[in-house]
TrEMBL record, chain A:
One annotated GO molecular function: thiolester hydrolase activity
Organism: Halomonas heilongjiangensis
Pfam families according to UniProt: 4HBT
Descriptive protein name: Thioesterase
Annotated ranges, domain Thioesterase: 65-137
Transmembrane domains' residue ranges: none
PANTHER family: 1,4-DIHYDROXY-2-NAPHTHOYL-COA THIOESTERASE 1 (PTHR43240), THIOESTERASE DOMAIN-CONTAINING PROTEIN (PTHR43240:SF3)
CDD domains listed in its UniProt record: PaaI_thioesterase
Amino acid sequence: MREGFSDVEWLARTRAEGDVEAWLAWVPYARRIGVSAIPDPHADGLLYRLAPSEGNVGNVLLPALHGGVVAAFMETAATLDLMLATRIPRLPHIVDLSIDYLRTARVAPTHARCRLLREGRRMANVQVSAWQEDEAVPVATARLHFVLADPVTTDHADA
Amino acid sequence: MTPDQDRSVEAWRQALTRFVTVIPHTRELGLEVLTVTPPVVTMRLPWCDDLLGDSARGLVHGGVLTMLLDTVCGSAVLCALPALEVCPTLDLRVDHYRPGVVGRDIFAEARVLRVTAPVVFTEGTLWQEEGRPLARGIGNFVRLGPRNTPPGFAEALFAGEDDHA
């Protein structure tokens, strides 16, 4: 049996089990920057975590995390959270992203919470907030649009 | 010191090469500055498998494209200022036109569209194959001003340049 996001049975099974780690195994850049999923201590669902690492530094003077790495972390969180949240198994493809940088992200554990604001037949809108010590003091907020593809049709195969 | 706007194209290429080499994330990925013709900068991100976002289908992670646009737009900011200042990203908008594919270098070009007292406005484009853009970004950067720019910032980027100018 094949594995990976275009294998419908694998996708349905890992989704039913909430096995986000199995998904991350297929996302090398997310592994490189150190993304993981953790249970939300205050509610059902997941939060996402970016491990602090020297390889994610974008400003050595402060030092601070690379803003683009923070964005990549938030996009990964939005994608994984959306894959768990849709009514049936779907494969999100990013359409656009807009990120606002609110504060310097220090080289410290960074967390993200996602909210699915709309799931249509074709499109989804996800809002993401990222913070370090205190969720009430976000370092960045982002909103993203995704096309929701049927896992059996590989929309981008010939792109 | 030479005023920053009078620097040669080659001096700028070396300075921005230092800039992306000092940043750990872009250094480890081997990001290369190709040309700097103020206010336009081009770069090349060499292929490595860590850039994938879907290794089964061989697609580039969208976040790699955001990271690259942030870097190339932020670098263009430096060469468009009257004097070097630290300019963090205020916000960034990325439109994904088509996914990047496994095995090909990613090229980036960014330009500064407008410099005002508080903000620098930029746009950037990425491609693997000429004429087929992967993504477009619009990034705005905040000018922190000379007071908040560490002393020696310009000297570090242009190290050695004035010795044989």
